[in-house]
Amino acid sequence: MSGTSRAQLCFLLLSVTALRGHARFLDIQDNEISPEGLLSLLSSELKRELPEEFVYRRALRCLDMVAIEGQFTFTAERPQLNCAVFFIGEPSDIISIEYDSVNIDCRGGDFIKVFDGWVMKGEKFPSTQDHPLPLYKRYSDYCETGVTRPIVRSSQNVAMLFFRLHQSGSSFTVTFRKLINPFPCNVVSQTPEGSFTMIIPQQHRNCSFSIIYPVEIQIGELSLGQHNDLKRSILGCAGSGDFVELLGGNGMDTSKMYPMADLCYSFNGPGEHSFFICCASSLVLAVPVVSNLGCKESHKPLHISLPISSNESRL
């Protein structure tokens, strides 16, 4: 069995074991999906090449990853009580999920729920601190709002669909589309290499760029609004207002990750601004305004250019 096949099998076995939510308001606490398994499944999905005029259709698995636009159907051959589908788009996309047809028993305990973000290992991305909506508003339950709200859209380039079906023959079909987001905030990277630019135009909010594997990050350009002339501080970025923080860890919740470096001054050109983060997950957190430090709101957009390269080294 190839390494890719083993990774995919490991991903499926761990995830089926871990998805054990028992309430209608799912909160996965023991999700042991590995970054390697998630990346392997995503890579196989991204390899599909389809003509533009072709409408991609396929059946969904109980645990699945979807990165290509199309129509997806799940039909239960037996009770399926703990299933989830990860949706992901390009960094500049948001996710649109439309219910085409649904044949489930809501009164009998079935449900289909869309979550605005991802849940991995019991942690949510974006975290509750970084997402513009309170947690309860990030869940959209078809049994409660599906008839009046057949289309659900995410706030960033990732979303999840949880479902629980008690009877064989229960089914649903959804259409997945990617919509352009001119100012992406809170992004999960699809690939281990590439370059990404984040622009945050006068928004009082945190934004993050998450990579779910060890990487070397080079920040090629950083413009921090009204703090363009701020020099490096030997005391860190406390009290500086706008800043960028690099975090590492084994999950996706920024509040549980470890600070690796912080930047609170503008520059142009990579120079010494290269960082190797060997944790399972790495994240660039842009904080345009930190209100609890008494800072004033920026009048210029925060601009970050991130050439990202994979690194196979391990500790």
From TrEMBL:
Leader peptide range in chain numbering: 1-23
Cellular localisation: Secreted
UniProt domain Corticotropin-releasing factor binding protein C-terminal: residue ranges: 187-285
Keywords: Disulfide bond, Glycoprotein, Secreted, Signal
One cellular component (GO) term of this entry: extracellular space
GO biological process: hormone-mediated signaling pathway; negative regulation of corticotropin secretion
Pfam families: CRF-BP_C, CRF-BP_N
Source organism superkingdom: Eukaryota
Keyword Metal-binding: no
Primary localization: secreted
UniProt GO molecular function: corticotropin-releasing hormone binding
Domain Corticotropin-releasing factor binding protein N-terminal: 55-178
InterPro entries linked to this entry: CRF-bd, CRF-BP_C, CRF-BP_N, Sperma_CUB_dom_sf
Family to which the UniProt record says this protein belongs: Belongs to the CRF-binding protein family.
Job of this protein: Binds CRF and inactivates it. May prevent inappropriate pituitary-adrenal stimulation in pregnancy.
Name this protein carries in UniProt: Corticotropin-releasing factor-binding protein
Organism: Cyprinus carpio
Lineage, top ranks: Eukaryota, Metazoa, Chordata, Craniata, Vertebrata
GN (gene name): LOC109094634
